[in-house]
Description:
Layout: H1 7-10, H2 23-26, H3 31-37, E1 44-48, H4 55-65, E2 69-74, H5 80-93, E3 97-102, H6 109-120, E4 125-130, H7 134-137, H8 140-144, E5 146-150, H9 156-168, H10 181-191, H11 195-208, H12 217-223, H13 235-249, H14 253-265, H15 270-285, H16 291-306, H17 312-324, H18 330-345, H19 360-364, H20 403-415
Parallel strand pairs: 1-4, 1-5, 2-3, 3-4
Amino acid sequence: MDISKPLAHRMRPEKIEEFFGQEHIIGENQPLRAAIEKGELYSSIILWGPPGCGKTTLARLISKVTNSEFIGLSAVNTGKADVEKAIQRAKLFHKKTILFLDEIHRFNKAQQDFLLPFVEDGTITLIGATTENPSFEIISALLSRSRVFTLKELNEENILNILNRAILSEKGLDNKIFINEENKKLITNLSNGDARTALNILDTAFSLSKDSKEITKETIENSTQKFLRYDKNGEEHYNIISALHKSMRDSDAQAAVYWTMRMIEAGEDAKYIIRRMIRFASEDIGNADPQALQVAIAAKQAIEFLGYPECNTALVQTATYLATAEKSNKVYEAVNKAKEIINRTGNLPVPLHLRNPETKLMKELGYGKGYQYAPDHKDSKVSQEHLPEEIKKEKFYEPTDRGYEKYIKKRMDDLK
């Protein structure tokens, strides 16, 4: 057993049967599996999925099974010159060549354009890997010449299979240490669906257990201290996000920083954190400070662009802004009031004057009759009913703080 390389590297599958997960694209009789078993990829492909789901492993496996030359690059530290060298290598091989471009979404338009002619003439078969939606991050010309395969987060069974293979394999731990099923599941839970993380935890636990015949729960915890008491399916996960939400609601910026960093240090998905903050911006702040939602959305974009660890400041910046912003739950109350009335009254008809008279029959039936076009009136204000007759007296949104007007006034004062 060569322990000079990380366990995750040693355990890369060399045949399809050793690849766990993604049965919807690589399982029996699935199109991608059929293509690679025939030794042919009929187009370049884009592998889209979360970290640790097997994108790089699958690309290497495809290269091996199809007997192709493999050139691997990462868009994070690759420029046009590196791609040119890869293209020249491909031309020298005189055989099928797969150019694997990890994090292809980080390539700009010009860099992606440069790849096009070599993809078209077959100099290379491109396999791009991305955690971001290809529709937004990859140019249409390159996307039209590729087939997108969506990979899913690995489930518990997938991770357990990967762990068992690593424990038993000669390339892995060679069955030289025991770990019970409960502790395997502990590693699985801590990995958050990421095979690489699971194998790294197992590798570290094995190193710490050299004088023992068993990997214990304590050893696993010592291997992953930052994950302690933070199982994504357990109570602490919900306790901490609840603590963050309530701290921001109570305008406690110090606690908001602490609980945000607790989640970051525990390895929580940054997108989960910002989703809760975006919700908070509408639920607890609303129109008392409309800028709050913009700040949260901007943080989401920063997270998608930067990733960990660089995005931690964007998360903390957002948490402190939301905690110190003026609060109003009137939008949240409006949502609940409207939902309750809709459930109680059902599909009430749209008033005739608000309907669009698309056909002659509709006009004859009175669609649009009597509708007042606001721009034709003074101050663009009209007096006409917009709710169904049965609920015309209902009040859904009742702001007491006139938050938007206060926000605009404050902004104007700041500019003076």
